[in-house]
Structures are given as C-alpha cells and as structure tokens.
C-alpha cells in the first residue's frame, strides 16, 4: 500500500484516541472519524511497514452504531473521542476491551472471563457528568479572548461555550468571563510570548452539595476581575440551583504547560467546597485530586464494598489510596483500614477527611506502596496483616514487588480497581501464579464518550497455594 492509494476498508475496532481500525491485506489501517461497522473509501496518507494511516474520502456504508455527536466541536476538541458511537455500543466496546485484556494478558479462557463478568455499569444519562473543568483562555486571530478547549494534541483553543460532559453552569461562567475581559480589555495569556494575564478558568461543582468553586489561573499576582465577577458568577450559579461558595486566584507565572501553580488566594468565600460520596464528606480545594464523575464513583466504590464483604472484623489495606476515598468508604464496615499513597498532599487530605468524618480506625502512610507495605509487614506481621487488600493503581498498574508482598500476606480476598485493562490483565497473570483466582468482575463507565474504562475485580486466595 502506498501513499495516496484510494482503497475500501471495513472498520472493525477503535483505538484509544478514537480512530477506527480496519485491515487491508492483513495490514492495520487507522482512519480518523470512523467507527466499527463503517465501510469507507479512504485515501492512504502515510504508509509504514506494519501499518498505515488513512483519511476518509467517502462513507460507503454507515455503521448501525453511528450517531450524530451531541456536541458541535466533538471532532476538533480532543475530549470526547468516541461521541459518534451510540452509548450502548460504547459500553459494549469497553466491556469487550476488558474481556479481551483479562483473557489474553491474564491467561484466562475467554468464556470463563465472560462467565465471571457482571457486565458494565453505564450512566442513565451520559452527559453533564464531570464535576471539574479546566478551560484555557487565549486570543483568537482578531486578538479577542477565546475560552474553550485545546484541539486534539495541539495548543490552539477551540471556543466552547457548552461542553456536554461538564455541568451546564460552565457555559454561563465562560460567557460572563469573556464579556468582562472584552469590556475591561483584560489580556488573555499568550503561551508563545509568556505575556498576558488570564490563563485558565477552573470550575468544580459539588454534585451532592450544589456548591460551586471557580478559580482563575493568572500570570500575575492579582486580578480585580476575580472580585468583580463574583456577582455574575453568583447569578449563573443560582440559575442552576447552585451556590457560589469559593472564588480564588491561582498564581502561575511559569512558562509551562502545567495548568495550575502552587499558590491559591481566596477572593470570595471559602477556600474549598464540600462534596459527599455515600455517607463520607470531602473537602475539595482548587488543587486537590478528586474523582471527576461522582455518580459513577459511588457505584464503583459500592462494588468495592460489596466485593470486600466486610463484617466489621477485617483489617483492610487500601493501596494507592489518594485522598483516602476508598479507605474512608470502607472504614465504617471494617475493624481497621490502612491507606498508602505516594503524594504527600493527598495523604494530608486523607487524614483531614478522616478527622472531618470522625473516622478513627483509618491510618494513612506516605510513600511508594511497593516500599511501605513490605517494610511495615516485616516490622510487625500481626499488626499489619491483611484480611482484604484493595489496590487502585495508576495506569501503569501495580509494582511486582508490591504484588509479591500482598501474596505473602495471604489476604482472603483482593479487590483490584483498574483504570487500564492492559496492566490489569498483566497483574492478574502474576497474581494467578501466586495463588489468587478471579471470582468475578464488573466494569464501570466513569468517562462516557472517551475510551477510558474502570474495572473492579474480586480475586480470592486459593487454599493450599
Ligand atoms: N483510590 C483513590 C486514588 C486512585 S488514583 C481514589 O479512588 O480516589 C491512583 C493513586 O496512586 C494516585 O493518588 C497516585 O498519586 C498514587 N500512586 C502512584 N504511584 C504510587 C505508588 N508507587 N505508591 C503509592 N501510591 C501511588
């Protein structure tokens, strides 16, 4: 196959960033803007030894799963890469991706993986789900402020006023800020020169508390706009049944791609909002990590709780514990929970959250789980034993040293929460060698319209191993 060849291809699969994949003479071809089930005439734009890239010329036959994306800029914005796929088909695609990874990489026959699958938990309404949004502010070609999202893999800003996966209040916030900036001739930040003032708008909404937080990231020490905008922001909040609880400035004067600087100055209200998951309350400030889809997070944690099957007498380890969300969710049902997390601020947040919720049977350790766990366990095997181990690692999965220690501790059950099915499959293969068996699993769709999928797996220890 050569560049500029025009060929017909049937799309069979989809990549992480939402490109369709088809095959021509056994060679994989990636075609943007296509989905499984499409048949398309394409032009080859790049040809390599083992794969090629094509551009769609004409759709010959549309996939039955193709829908009109409910956002005008879904193609240019890098966020919702599979919005053109019907939601039911998105869920099916994600579930199959997990099945495939657990079977292929975990070394379990596919029919067995399917039998153990409790399905995928999707959203009833897969829109307006994100509680956190970060909108870059820049200039359009006429020098006017533009607020929206970076176009896929670039730093040019696509103007967006109504993002379908965020809270609808954002549209009003963006409009108010833009109007204010035009009226007062406020300079947006220019990434190339490093000049200009306003860089980003960060919004966070407590879905269960109806509280709103707005932070302006600025390349300077102060901006009157933040105070002047309080009234219009309050009005916008009210319209959606929210109350504006916090407005702040975040200082970022570095020429960097990093969105947030380390310093925040509260200009109105509190320095944080509150949110609840189940019956646990959390304080969220502009810099804290918090799960972005609260509705699905609760479903995920409930599954973790169910798989943990706690009776009140168990010792639980929550490894990769973040701000302690899973630990605190489980603590009320367990004898004791130990959390381990590498980021110092997150550990402080976890401890504060425990105090706020009057939870006294949870301790948090700071450091790499693969170092802390073996250290503590070898120090005092009785104190630091585990009935249940929960892991919720980042995409790269668990460190082998950590899994080896968990195996040595011989917990009755392990609950693996994964955000990457490939590393999940790899870790399952290792845990099988160490005497654990997959009992059941469920996927949860935390990020509709993107390719991401979360999975909760219950593994139990096989006696005698
Ligand atoms: N369970 C939490 C957070 C999971 S995200 C929640 O549901 O909110 C994964 C977490 O692992 C992040 O907070 C990250 O900082 C932490 N992490 C990454 N590498 C780690 C390591 N080696 N040891 C401990 N924590 C780690």
Describe this structure in words.
Strand 10 (198-206) and strand 11 (211-218) form a beta hairpin. It contains 11 helices and 22 strands. The model has no long low-confidence stretch (mean pLDDT 95). The strands form 4 sheets. It has an 8-stranded mixed beta sheet with strand order 6-21-22-20-19-16-17-18, sandwiched between helices. Strands 9-8-7-10-11-12-13 form a 7-stranded mixed beta sheet. With 465 residues, it is α/β, with parallel strands linked by helices. The structure holds S-adenosyl-L-homocysteine. The site of S-adenosyl-L-homocysteine (SAH) has 17 residues, from helix 7, strand 17 and helix 9.
Q: What ranges have pLDDT less than 50 throughout 5 or more consecutive residues?
A: none
Strand content: 25-35%
Radius of gyration: 24 Å
Calculate the terminal CA-CA distance, rounded to whole Å: 52 Å
Short description:
With 465 residues, the chain is an alpha/beta fold. Helices cover 27% and strands 32% of the residues.
Describe the protein's topology.
Elements: E1 6-14, E2 20-24, E3 27-31, E4 39-47, E5 51-61, H1 87-106, H2 110-115, E6 117-121, E7 132-139, E8 145-150, E9 157-159, H3 169-183, E10 198-206, E11 211-218, H4 224-228, H5 230-239, E12 243-251, E13 263-269, E14 273-277, E15 280-284, H6 294-308, E16 315-319, H7 325-331, E17 336-341, H8 344-356, E18 362-366, H9 369-379, E19 388-391, H10 400-409, E20 413-418, H11 421-433, E21 436-444, E22 454-461
Helix pairs in contact: 1-11, 3-5, 9-10
The protein binds S-adenosyl-L-homocysteine (SAH).
